[in-house]
Amino acid sequence: MARELIIRAESWPLARPFAISRGVKTAADVVVVEIDEGGARGWAECVPYPRYDETIDSVTAEIEAVRRAIEGEVANAEVQSLMAAGAARNAVDCALWDLRAKQAHTSVAELCGLGALKPEITAETIGIGTADEMGARAAELKSAPLLKIKLDAKDIEARLDAIRAAAPDARLIVDPNEGWTAAIVAEKGAYLKSIGVEMLEQPVPAGDDEGLRDIESPVALCADEALHTSADLERLQGKYDMVNIKLDKTGGLTEALALKAKAEGMGFGIMVGCMVGTSLAMAPAQLVAQGAKIVDLDGPLLLKEDRNPGLDFTGGMIHPPRPELWG
Question: What is the 3-state secondary structure (H, E, C) of the chain?
Answer without folding.
Answer: CCEEEEEEEEEEEEEEEEEECCEEEEEEEEEEEEEEECCEEEEEEECCCHHHCCCHHHHHHHHHHCHHHHHCCCCHHHHHHHCCCCHHHHHHHHHHHHHHHHHHCCCHHHHCCCCCCCCEECCEEECCCCHHHHHHHHHHCCCCCEEEEECCCCCHHHHHHHHHHHCCCCEEEEECCCCCCHHHHHHHHHHHHHCCEEEEECCCCHHHCHHHHHCCCCCEEEECCCCCCHHHHHHHCCCCCEEEECHHHHCCHHHHHHHHHHHHHCCCEEEECCCCCCHHHHHHHHHHHCCCCEECCCHHHHECCCCCCCCCCHHHEECCCCCCCCC
